[in-house]
Design goal:
This protein is mainly alpha-helical and 278 residues long. The chain contains 12 helices and 7 strands. The strands form 3 sheets. The protein has a 3-stranded antiparallel β-sheet with strand order 3-5-6. Helix 1 runs antiparallel to helix 2 and helix 9 runs antiparallel to helix 11.
Length: 278
């Protein structure tokens, strides 16, 4: 029996012995997640890490709404969904946000099958980049940490569409993110849009948002759901191997370069640079 198997056996036994309300339970789940990851069992790793995260979220439930409200209340940008207020009760809260009639970018791309011209797609890409760039360039920069087509909302405009960034449930300032990932090995992510460094548990950075934005650009180009029907371990292995989603041949070269740059060039920290450099 190898060292990893022995470690897994030890922590599994420990899991049975620790009372369900013991605060150390979270770290046991996290350690099991890391062991499973090193064994190459990525599905099991994700399950253990999710269990660890559940405990953390339960412990922080009372503070989480306050953190999100604090972030939202300080943001004023035409490319960010406006926050109007909140209704709070013990243990739950409701946000009052700007209404965007078409729903998410994911919805119009993959459910409504809304016809979009290439200029309209480029405009949408520019607006998504503008919103993320605004967050990154605040005096105390904010990393969104959950960029995906579900978190961009769409509204019809006089010409084309208006796009705004939403869902700051996972957002943190850059300093908070550094502290968070230094002391916590459990990172929250949505796998198909997740950057390699997150899968390696290295922590969030500006470039992590940029990578995720590149996957959104790929969605705009392909009109497909990223890694649809692929298993989690296959997605993870592909991303860590440096493979990237293939742009359809019919994609205009300008848009193709845009998506590729976001996915491959970790030095392109400013999202707007992705657009203007074309």
């Amino acid at each position: 029996m190898g060292k990893l198997d022995l470690a897994e056996q030890y922590y599994s036994r420990l899991l049975q012995e620790i009372p369900p309300n013991d605060p150390s339970l979270r770290s046991v789940y996290a350690d099991l997640g890391q062991i499973a990851s090193q064994q190459g069992n990525y599905d099991k790793s994700v399950r253990w890490l999710q269990e660890s995260l559940k405990i953390k979220e339960q412990a922080a439930a009372s503070n989480s709404p306050k953190n999100e409200l604090s972030l939202l209340d300080g943001i004023r940008c035409p490319k960010i969904v406006s926050f109007y207020g909140a209704c709070t009760e013990t243990g739950k809260y409701t946000l009052v946000m700007e209404y965007m009639s078409l729903g998410s970018l994911f919805k119009i791309l993959h459910k409504d099958n809304l016809i979009l011209t290439w200029p309209e797609r480029l405009s949408i890409a520019f607006q998504t980049a503008s919103g993320i760039s605004y967050l990154h360039q605040l005096p105390e920069p904010i990393l969104h940490r959950d960029i995906k087509s579900l978190n961009f909302l769409i509204e019809r405009a006089y010409e084309g569409y208006t796009v705004k960034v939403c869902d700051f449930g996972l957002a943190r300032t850059r300093n908070e993110t550094t502290r968070y990932t230094t002391f916590n090995s459990t990172l929250t992510y949505t796998l198909p849009w997740t950057a390699p460094e997150i899968l390696l548990l290295e922590g969030y950075a500006d470039k992590s948002d940029i990578y995720s934005l590149g996957v959104v650009f790929w969605e705009l180009a392909s009109r497909r759901i990223p890694y649809y029907e692929y298993k989690n371990d296959v997605i993870r292995a592909s991303v860590l191997a440096g493979d990237r989603l293939k742009i359809p041949e019919s994609t205009p070269s300008r848009f193709e370069r845009l998506s590729n740059d976001a996915g491959h060039n970790s030095q392109l920290i400013d999202p707007i640079a992705l657009i203007w450099s074309k």
